[in-house]
Amino acid sequence: MTQNQNFIKDLIHQAKKAGATAADAVMLASTSVGVQVRNGQSEELERSETKTVGLRVFIDKRSATISTTDLHKDNIEKLVEQAISMAKILPEDPFSGLPEPSSKACIDPKELDLYDASERSTQEMLEQAKQTEAAALAVQGVSNSMGGSCGYSKNEMILANSNDFFGTYARTSHSLSACVLAGTGTDMQRDYDYHSTVHLKDLEDADAIGRSAGEKAVAKLNPKKPNTGILPVIFDPRVANSILGHLAGALNGYAIARGTSFLKNDMGNLIFPADITIIDQPYLIKGLASRPFDVEGLYPEELKLVDQGKIANWLLDSRTASQLGLVSNGHATRGPSSPPSPTTTNLYVMAGTQTPTELMADIKEGIYITEMIGSSVNMVTGDYSRGASGFMIRNGQLAEPVMEFTLASTLKEMFSQLHIANDLKFRYNTNSPTLRIDAMSVAGN
């Protein structure tokens, strides 16, 4: 057993010995390297290594959380003493406590394939960043660069609690990106492309990422403002995932328990069209947010948040589950210095049957959204208003670029009019195919 694992187990043992009725501890160890170039010259090189431990102790229904980066063994007693002292003076929380141990065995982290031993040298990362930027600058119409970047990270999590849970897993990440400008003077437009994977071999080609960033920027030149009106709207997958993010926020057990979600009374109700199913999948192989257990030592459940259009599950940790008279579905997350809260893992909407071209074929006039700007989304009422840019759709085809306009509706109205394409790809933590909403208010000219 490693020194880090012994440290975590000793923390739990000492906390119980000092009077805690229950305790858990998490260690997060991270190594990251990032390089950035601009116009072919190295501009930034960063490397960081961090290791932080968080201890949470319970004295009946009182609890306290404390964190440290001092991992010397003789610091354990001091850390435990401080946590116990804090817990004794904090108010009781009737919903606090460790969950009952999971009746299921945790999946072997190796089955999720979250760790890649490949690690590029700094020089290799610089060359990849330069190659990505060069491919973007080679696109005709690109006039300047905001940089090409290459990154790598390795993160390890160790968790133990007084219910005899002990688990550890590691995750790696490799990334490439480019951001460039097209045009000149006051008519310049910016765009980017980015890709991140668990395994280096799955990372997209540097030339493809750079070329995509350049082409996106050039396509936005000479934009106009659309006319104000009610129009059908198509969301590119790059921004469509934000709609799923709003749904996840509304189905978060914390918001449901507090009564601050516009979907708080809609469990079992048909909110989406009946052909839509939205899933949170913690066991996606090589998934960017996959995990074998949550931060409370529970086996996370694959959840259908929306099942054939109906709200089917909340996202729950043990505390919000207790408040709602339910059982945690293993979706707790936390940092070393904070208590657990519910969150998604790999969230996605199941793909439809139409291609993106077919999805917009009958639109005489509409808007194709490629970028969202700012946010005014009220999660209590579901009111939605966001700045956006993209392209006009005319007679089923993409037309001139448009920008400086606002989209408005309510999330419930948007959900009820949702249509989905078949181009689902897993590029982010939250993934969506191209989406269509039949009618939204557009405020432009």
UniProtKB/TrEMBL annotation:
Annotated ranges, domain Metalloprotease TldD/E central:
117-221
Positions of the Metalloprotease TldD/E C-terminal domain: 229-444
Family membership, please give it. Answer: Belongs to the peptidase U62 family.
UniProt protein name: TldD/PmbA family protein
Q: Which SUPFAM superfamilies match?
A: Putative modulator of DNA gyrase, PmbA/TldD
User: Start and end of every Metalloprotease TldD/E N-terminal domain?
Assistant: 23-87
Q: Which PANTHER family match?
A: METALLOPROTEASE PMBA (PTHR43421:SF1)
Q: Which organism is it from?
A: Commensalibacter nepenthis
Which Pfam families is this protein grouped with? PmbA_TldD_1st, PmbA_TldD_2nd, PmbA_TldD_3rd
Record InterPro entries: Metalloprtase-TldD/E_C, Metalloprtase-TldD/E_cen_dom, Metalloprtase-TldD/E_N, PmbA, TldD/PmbA_N, TldD/PmbA_sf
